[in-house]
Amino acid sequence: PIELTKKEFDLLHCLIENQGIVLSRAALLQKVWGYDFEGETNSVDVYIRYLRAKIDEAFGEKYIHTVRGVGYVMR
């Protein structure tokens, strides 16, 4: 079992639903945090880091990939 916060789960769910599709930080902010979210775009980066620590590093495989200058993709 992997313990995730609600926001981590929502982000992971969004990435899995869009597997193979590169999602920009702005798209992830809209889909996960909602249209009315008024924060820094580094929120996505922080939560991606949390997910990588709990999933990628814990299992020794890389599932969440960064596409420089664009966003993130789940493979």
Any overview of this molecule?
- α1 (about 5-15) packs across α2 (about 25-35) and α1 crosses α3 (about 40-60).
- The protein is of the alpha+beta class and about 80 residues long.
- It contains 3 helices and 3 strands.
- It is globular.
Walk me through the topology:
Blueprint: H1 6-17, E1 23-24, H2 25-33, H3 42-59, E2 64-67, E3 71-74
Antiparallel strand pairs: 1-3, 2-3
Helix pairs in contact: 1-2, 1-3
Question: Low-confidence segments, ≥5 residues, pLDDT <50?
Answer: none
Main sheet strand line-up: 1-3-2
Helix amount: 40-55%
Please tell me the overall pLDDT. 92
Quick structural summary:
The chain is built from three helices and three strands; from the N terminus they run αβααββ. By secondary structure, the chain is α+β, with helices and mostly antiparallel strands. Helix 1 (6-17) packs across helix 3.
Identify the notable features of this structure and list them briefly:
3 strands, three-stranded antiparallel β-sheet, alpha+beta, 75 residues, 3 helices
